[in-house]
Each structure stands twice: as structure tokens, then as C-alpha cells.
Amino acid sequence: MFDWLGFRTGLPLWVSCRLNRNRIGDVKEIFEGIAATRAALLQDWAAEYWGHMGRLRQRLEQEAGERSIAEFAASEAGAHFQLEEAYRRAVHFTELFFVDGDGAVTATTYAPHLGQGYELESRGGLELGLSHASSSGGRCLYGPFRDEITLAAGPRTSSFHDRVTLMFIEPFFKDGKWLGALCGRVPGDVLGDLIQRESGHVYPDSGDNYLFMAKPELDLSIEPGVALSRSRFEDRTFTHGDNLKDGVRTDYGIVKVEEHTELELKFTDPSTGELHPGVANTIRSGSNLFVEFPGYSDYRHIPVIGKGVTFRLPHHPDLWGMMCEGDLEEVYRIRGIDWQTRRSTMLSLFVSVPLFALLMLALVLMESSAAVVGAVAVGAYTALGIVVPMLSRRRITRRTAERLGAVTRFIRLNAEGGGDLTQRLRVEDYGQDETRELAKWINNMIDSLEGIMLRVRLASGDVRLSQGELSVKAVELASNTERVGEAMGQMIAGTASQLKDIEGAKASAFEMRQQLQELEEQANREIGVARSEVERIGEAMHDISRSMEQSGQKIGGLVGAVNQVREVLGAIEQISSQTHLLALNASIEAARAGESGRGFAVVAGEIRKLSELTRQSTESVRNIIAQIYEEMERTTASMEEGGQAVESGRLLVEAASGMLMAAAAGDGRKQEVAGEVARLMERIAEVSLLNRETSAKAELHMQELQREMARVKATAGEAEAITGLLEGMVAQFRLTESRRSG
């Protein structure tokens, strides 16, 4: 009946499970929920940090321009600036660096690492991850693995830290050739922090969430069942029993770790030496749920229950497993208020009934009259009817009311917003009943809300940085637009001057034709005048062509700047989406708390509205940018038409000049040549008029472009104001300093 537990250990646990058999459904839901939310949290976190890597890659490629990314990272201070900017945004990275095609670190945020070389043929450490990325041609999330640089660089967010590392690897290729990789270093203890949430732990005396290898695909030296994250039993500040650093004592020996849990501990049952049933069944079936008596033996040979799941992180080749467990004794330790009331009543009756019987016996022995015995009996029953409920109320009801009052006061401080999210209820002050369960789940909800608020604060700060970049780009675009407008104005002025010169040349040509008909001897002089005018036209054509070329280059720069603005908008949209999800999570957590979380639900709703406003503002900016892009395309098309017209005019001028030279050489054809020149002048005038119309259209497009840029600046200002309001709302809450940096 008691299986591997034995009678002495199994009987009390069996009694506890029987008393709480109506809670089995709730316990299943608790462990299912913990496992699902923790797995989703890890996958969302990995996707978020791949987003940081992708945006950093785009910035580096834009800054590199025509050069290869490896050349840019090795020779330009701009690469270091971009790495530092991304490092400041992504707080779980302890280093961002670039490894070139030869394996040398050419740019990094951690100076001592600069210049170190890696042999890609090696099959251990970071080299294995780089080799996989270069051979597979895609991203690789590699680890955990041990790296001394991680230990030396130190932590940023975790209070624990060792050499275990997780590495984000973003490879670069050109024409199929490996150019190197952008790498992001994350300490392995960050994973433990993400899934533990110690201050809001549902089972504070025992419960543990930990990662293990389910199926290795890259580093085959890590066997199934080996730990991939820190266990809370490693922490010497965990006082509810032994810890792994000093050694967990079992009937089959001591289980301990020398340095840290990750990669050092394998989750086996000390009594068998095999993987303990929770881990083994999870690896075999992909998931495992067991919450009933007698539980299963874990690596401490203690009966536990819980949920196991397997999953893959984005771009990680290995299959991981996660166990969310609690000691059977703690999970079913609860004794409900109803059971306590019944027990108190039974104890009172157990004591009072013998006393009443003794009293009646004494009266009989004293040969008291029936009236006396009856009166005493009535009095005794009346006293029992008063005393027993009073004792029960004093023992159970009043104590429960006091505890609920303490919970109510705690909730009241936070329910209306602007509360202190650093405070938690002292679970040990509550009995082993529903009030302790209420306190634990309130702590869990507060911890979740604090985590969400911290992520919202980070997200809003990231949005503010992106909006700052957007504002800078908008100013640059406006400045470039003004310069292009000035160039367009100069081009139009040149076109007008050219048209005036052409009109003069045209008049001279017709006058020359008339004079040639009357006075042949004056032909040479008039032809000379015409040649002079044609040369002036040619020079004007050349100036216009140069102005249009410069304008085209500036518009090309505008196109690049607009593309950068689009990328910034993409980052803002992603952050806005994350903020919306965070607010939705906060609403769910608040809804789980019922009336107690109504104030949090209001705050979460406001945050969700603000994220929607940010999304709408970003969409507005994106539409404006699209209009700007269309205007620039129309401007470019107009300038191309003008360029074609100028080229046509240049060819006609060359033809006219050639004919004039021929006319100067032979007097016999002077009249014929003069007529041809006059016709050419008419065609040149037509081309110049077309060029003037095209330039006027381009000027109108540039004016529209300037108006659109003004709209971009205004919308960016609105989005910045919304972000400020969001930050102000989050600032109402007091958050834990140790978690704020993370």
C-alpha cells in the first residue's frame, strides 16, 4: 500500500492525501499551469533576445555599407558603438562580440576578450557552437557550456553567477562564404531566475522548477537527465532542509555538487542509480503528470509530485525538459478550516461528555432527588451548548478572521494602484489551512505583477530609445529634404536661364536666316553668334545635368534614411506588442485574484490602452513613411525624365554646333544650314520647356515631402508623450531594487 515509502513514512502522507483528496483536481491544474507558463516564458524570452540580435545585425550591415561586416567590425569605432547600444537595451547579455571568419574577436563590449582567437575545428566550448552555425548556415542558440570569460565578466541581473553560459550566435555569410558571427553571452543562472521566481514560489518549503537535457543533438557529452539550470536546493539561503552545496543526506548516501548544479548533477534516484521516475517518464513520453499518493522518488529520495514537459527554444538544436515539482508532504499538508472546526468540536465533546457523565454519577451516588439531577442536567447541557461553540470560535473562527483581516489590509495597500510591490505576506504567520494557500497565491500574484511591471518598464524604456532614434532620423530626413529642395530650386533656376538663352539663340538663328537671304557676306558673322549661343546652351545643359546628378545622390541618401526609420518602427511595433502581452498577462493574474486584484486589473487595462495607442501612433508613422517613399519615387521618376530631356538637348546642341562648323567651312550651304539650325533651335526650345515642366513637378513633390516629414516629427512627438505616460503609470509602483536592473 505504501510502496517504496514504507509504513512509518507512508502512513502520515497517506492520511494527508486522503484528507485533501478533494483538492487533487486543483493540484493538477496548479502544476499544469506552472509548467506551461514557465515553458512559454523561456521560449518568449529566447525569441525576444533573438529580436535584439536581429536588430543589431541590421544596424551593423547598414553602417558597413558596401564593405563586408567583418571589415567594418575590425576597423570602425561605429561597430563598438552599435554593440554598446544593444548591450544597454538587452540587460541579460553580459557581452556582445563579433568573431570574424578566422575565429578572432574583432569587436566586443568586454575589452579583455578583444583579440582572442577560436579554432573552429575544435569540438568543445564556443567553437562547437560557431562550427555548427557556419556549417548549418543559420542561427544557433548554443549551450549551456562552461566558459571562463562568463565568470570573469560577472553578472548583470542574477544574484547567482558561475561560468555556465548560453550563447546566441548570429552568423554572417556572403556568396556562401563564412564571414563570422555576432555573439551574445548570457549567464546560465538567468534561466534559473526566469523559472524560479523565488519570492512568489507556490511551495516555498520544497517546490523546485529545473531544466534538464532530454535529447542532445549538438553537444553529445551532455547525457539525458543532466541538469541545465540552477536548483533552488543549491542555495545556502534556502533554509527548509539540506542544500546541494553542503550535501543532501539520504538513506543511500549524500547528494551534493562541488561548484553548481548545471552540467554537474544528474537527476537519478539514489536507491537505484537510474533516472528518477519524473525525469525518465518525461523524456520517454514528452510530458509527465503525477500528483497523487505515493508520488515518486526524486534525486534526494524524497516523495515528490509534479509536472514534466519537453520543449525546444528557438534555434536551439537540443530538446530540453523541465520539471515543476513539490514535496508530497508540503502539497498535501493543508488542513482545511472545515476540518479544523469539526476536529475542534469533536475534541470539545470528547472532553465535555465524560465530565457530564461523571457529574451525573456523582449526583446519583449522593442520592440526590430527581428534581436536582434534572436541574443539574439541564444546566450542564446548557453550559455545554455555550462553552463548546465559544471554544470553537476562539480556536478557529476568530483566528481565521484575524488572518483574513491581515490579508485584506495587505491587498488594500496595493489594490488601487501605486502600491508597494516589494512587500509579501509572511506565509509562516498563517495556519496550514486555506488562509495559508490564499497568502501563497497572493504572493505569487504580486510577484508575477512585479515581474510584469519591470518588463513593462524595460519595454517602455526601449520604446523611448527607439523613439529617440526616430526623432533623430526625422531631423536628418528633414535636413536632407531641405538640401534637396535647394538643389531643385537651383536646377529650376538654371533651366529658366537656359530657356532664356535658347530663346535668344532661336531669335539669332531666324535673324541669321533672313540676313543670309539678303546678304550672303554677313553669314559667317551670324553663324559665329549662333555658335557662341549654342556653346552657352551646352554649358548650361552640363550644369543642369550635374545639379540633377547631385539631387539624385541626395534623394538616394533620403531613401536609406527612410529605410532606417522603417527598421526603428519595426522595433517599436515589436516592443508595443510585448507591452500589450505583458498587460494581458497582468490582467490574467489580477483576474485570478478575483476582487482582490480588481485594482491591478484597472492598471493593466490602462497599460494595454497605452500600448494600443503606441501601436496606432507607430502605424500612423509607418503610413506617413510609405507616403514619403512614394513621393521620393515620384520625385526620382521626374528627375529621370528631366535627365532624359537634358540628354536629348545636349545631343541636339552637339548636332547644331557641328552644323554651324560645317556652315562656317562652306558658304554654298549656308542658307540650308541656317534653316536646319533654326529648326534645331525650335526643337531645343521644346525640350527645354518640357524640362522646365518636369522640374516644376519635382519641386512640388519635394514640397509635399517636406510636409510629410513635418507630420512624421509631430507623430513621433505624440508617441513619445504616450511612452512617458506609460512610464509614469509604472513608476507609481515600488519595485524590488534587485530585480529592477533585470
> What Rg, in angstroms, do the CA atoms define?
41 Å
Helix coverage percent: 55-70%
The side-by-side strand order for the widest beta sheet comes to: 2-1-5-4-3
CATH class wording of the largest domain: Alpha Beta
CATH architecture descriptor of the largest domain: 2-Layer Sandwich
Question: What is the helix tally?
Answer: 16
Instruction: Name the CATH homologous superfamily of the largest domain.
Output: PAS domain
Number of domains: 2
Alpha-carbon distance between the two ends: 48 Å
Query: The CATH topology of the largest domain, please?
Result: Beta-Lactamase
Largest sheet: 5 strands, antiparallel
How does the helix and strand content classify structurally?
alpha+beta
H/E element order: HHHHEEHEHEEHEEEHEEEEHHHHHHHH
Query: Hey, roughly how much beta strand do the residues contain?
Result: 5-15%
Count of strand segments: 12
Mean pLDDT: 76
| Poorly predicted spans | 738-742
Shape: elongated
Give a quick precis of the structure.
This protein has helices spanning about 5-20, 25-65, 70-75, 75-90, 125-135, 150-155, 190-195, 275-285, 330, 335-365, 370-415, 435-520, 525-590, 600-665, 670-730, 735-740; strands spanning about 95-100, 105-110, 140-145, 165-175, 175-185, 210-215, 250, 255, 285-290, 295, 305-310, 320-325.
Structure description:
Mean pLDDT is 76; it is low at 738-742. The strands form three sheets. The chain has a five-stranded antiparallel β-sheet with strand order 2-1-5-4-3, with helices on both faces. Strands 6, 9, 10, 11 and 12 form a five-stranded antiparallel β-sheet that branches. The protein is an alpha+beta fold and 742 residues long. The protein contains 16 helices and twelve strands. Helix 3 crosses helix 4 (77-89) and helix 11 (370-415) packs parallel to helix 12.
